[in-house]
Amino acid sequence: MPPAVLTHWRAFCVLKDCMGLSHHSIGILFSTDGPYGLVGRAMLNGARLAVEEVNAQGDITLEPVICDPQGALAGYVAGAEQLLGAGIRHVVGCYTSSSRKEIIPIFEKRDGLLWYPSHYEGFETSANVIYTGAAPNQHIVPLVRYLLARGGRTAFCVGSNYIWAWENNRILRETLAIAGGQVTGERYLAVGETALGQVIEAILDAKPDFVFNTLIGTSAYRFFRDFRSACRARGIDQPRTLPVASCSLAEPELEAIGPEAVDGHLSSSVYFTSIDSPRNRAFTAAYAARFPDGPTASADTESSYIAVHLLARALARAGTEDAATVRRTACMDAFDAPQGPVRLDETTLHACLTPRIGLSTAAARFSIVAQADEPVAPDPYLVRSDPRVVPVSRRPRLRVVP
């Protein structure tokens, strides 16, 4: 660990021992620099806001030790090793699946607990990971059903070249095939790639019903701008006739896209800042007051916020930082989150969350066009949601919002 951070950790341990208080150091591991630094900053802010709320309540005190891997897998490995090596048992962090998979073996070896606050592609469980972001049955499956119900039968998939895009595209492909549809094209680009002309031409030539976007970070922002521009040049009303649907598009990214191409995009998520509830209005107001320079709150912000609060509540109840005890205690709790009630499923260690579909507006926000009536249990392996075996009558439905 860098000397300055290590000194901070040691000083805190002395303070904790002298005061005899219920203090806990937790790791924060987000990339606030690099190709998806905007998302990382929003996630860090969500964690910081939750830490401050926990400390203000006075039951326990959290001391965050922050590492920035700068979007590099080697940086995540070094950060995880440093945090766990310093005796920290709980780390809230990671956005990409590649970074999560890179460090899970470290947490399993050292018996730490990674609190992973990002939507992801599923098909994973670990006794050393708590998943507070959406599983595939809570974002990709509802999105595909929404599109199918509106006549979407052909898709062109464009994504960043790693497991998030590969697996989500596979789920989309299989679901479409069962409904008599198909994927007409599939392209993958390196994270951060912004030379998108050939991909856009391929999409326009294929003439799909919709584009399924799994690009992340700067690649995604550039894609939305260039795609809208190319459609305009061909006289295509892109939002109406060739919509782009995503499972990762959030409010800060709408702002990064810019006004010329921000509206008319579909996003499947469990949280949007436009949720109309007293709890969410209080959250967004507190967030805006604490971080007036942004980034704007998002689903990733809220998921990080949830992770820290669930961790703090479990630490307070467990009276120990032992991973197994905290994990078991966390699964006996529920949290009134900005999106609505959230609890952890003790079998999968994933969260029960409320799926929603949003349509982006010119104001760089989302209008919620469909949502579930209650939280949906996680199904990371799609054993209860697989469209090949689960009858339509047994699948959770989204209610269209007028």
From TrEMBL:
Under Pfam families, the record lists: Peripla_BP_5
Which top-rank group of organisms is this from?
Answer: Bacteria
Q: Which InterPro entries match?
A: AmiC_PBP1, Peripla_BP_I
Where are the bilayer-spanning segments?
none
Read off the Gene3D superfamilies from this record. Answer: 3.40.50.2300
Alphabetized PANTHER family for the sequence: ALIPHATIC AMIDASE EXPRESSION-REGULATING PROTEIN, PTHR47628
Spell out the protein name for this chain. Aliphatic amidase expression-regulating protein
> Which species?
Methylobacterium phyllosphaerae
Highest classification ranks of the organism = Bacteria, Pseudomonadati, Pseudomonadota, Alphaproteobacteria, Hyphomicrobiales
